[in-house]
Amino acid sequence: MFATFYWNTWLAASLLALAAGSLGFFVILRRNAFAAHALPLAAFPGGALATFLGISPLLGLAGFALLGVLFLRLFSRQGRRDVAIGLLLSSFLALGGLLLSLGREYAARVYGLLFGEAWAIPAQSLQPLAVLCVLLLLLLLWQFRPLLLQSSSPALASAAAIPMDRMDWFFLLLLAIVCAAAVPLVGTLLVFTLLVSPAAAAQRLLARPLAAWLLSMLLAEILVWSALALSYWSNWPLGFFIGTLGAGLFLSSRRW
Amino acid sequence: MPPVPPPSLPILQVAGVSVRIEAKAILTDIHFAVASGQVCALIGENGAGKTTLLRSILGVQSLQSGTIQILGQPATRQLHRLGYVPQKISFDPDLPLRTRDLVDLGIPRPFWRWRPPDPHAVAEAIHAVDGEGFANQRVGRLSGGQQQRAVIAHALARKPKLLLLDEPLANLDFASANHLVQLLGRLAKEQGISIVVTAHDMNPLLPILDQLVYLVGGRAATGSVAEVVRTEVLTKLYGYPVEVLQHHGRLLVLPENPRQGLEIPCYAHDHD
To answer: How many structural domains compose chain A?
Structure first.
């Protein structure tokens, strides 16, 4: 699987696993798994629109994921976050459906948006992915302690004058960017697994925050590497292995 | 009732504080001061204004009138000298955070410093709450009383002058509550930390109380227990006759005649 032809996919998947594993740690801490499910789907119409207009899908995906964050913050202020997320999910999916119906001939590409096109990662997408990954890790290291406290106990964080809203924005914007970057590789439906399963398993296995954070990234790497290998050998889609191995990882960490 | 003049510069000074929320008076003209190493309880029923008063001291509730100062400055400027233990603390059982990690997070520092400037600060805070036994356990898997102590250690880690606790005795069994009261008394006496604690029931706190702010409908009687928990003082505060009963060092405040007590009107304006 390390033949030059697959090198791009392997590198992209490894970078993405690092990003998803590190940010996923905070998704679990903040009990924001539902948002991690909704934001990639919010990005989906952006991808569909970009395909329709013939521009870079990454632009469309990132644009709509950020729009999703804006939507989420505005509607959360009106009331419950879970309701806001549900509405985000369905309304953006509806929009995606509309865009899909406008450009029927691109259905195959849209299928790629939903389930990913891991084996068709172009070399030029690696550099932005690497930059994004390094930037994300630096930002998370910068805010690690305040974000950890605020995610663990909002009440204690506000007593320490850690601004609640600013932290939420910070987290959601990072989540939107990671989701947009992950969609071309694993598709909107499976980003969730990468974000949630390694992080939840790591938190179950290790009690120290920093160690659990690092383990979350390592488990994400192991997950994508095994999925890539199995997909390569079996010729079955990558998404299938990511989805099932991710669920298996989570379950086996519970049984540990 | 005028505040008791503190022996030295007060750690906390609350003067003439009134708070209105949507035209409803929540607190009316509250005065008290807490000196270094004193324990002060805010006592009252639900809706009496305890939480609003605590939020005012924390600086998150805006005042309609009056001032609150911590060491002579507004609370928002003194957050680093203030430890706060919120009422409902619950951590997820799988939260990857041990007691010592939670305590460590109580010490604010720039991101490039992974270790606290004072290497003993965490151990000292854990020792102060008698928490060595669960220092390496996840906070989400501790008992209610242990979680409470872990959060107090978190608040102590930044070496505050003033510790605020919101209903720390609620949800604790008798033994844990007693243990916590002794712990608070020790922090005040040995480390000179001023403590403000809210509670429904003053009795568990009586052994360590220096001062009482007894709240009824947003008005307060303040002073020592002996000064405040008296039939005439509380009758005036409640606006109807109440009786203070003592039994084996415990205090009970009861309407003098339950039937009359429920029919407030004829005594309601006595204090005006």
So the answer is: 1
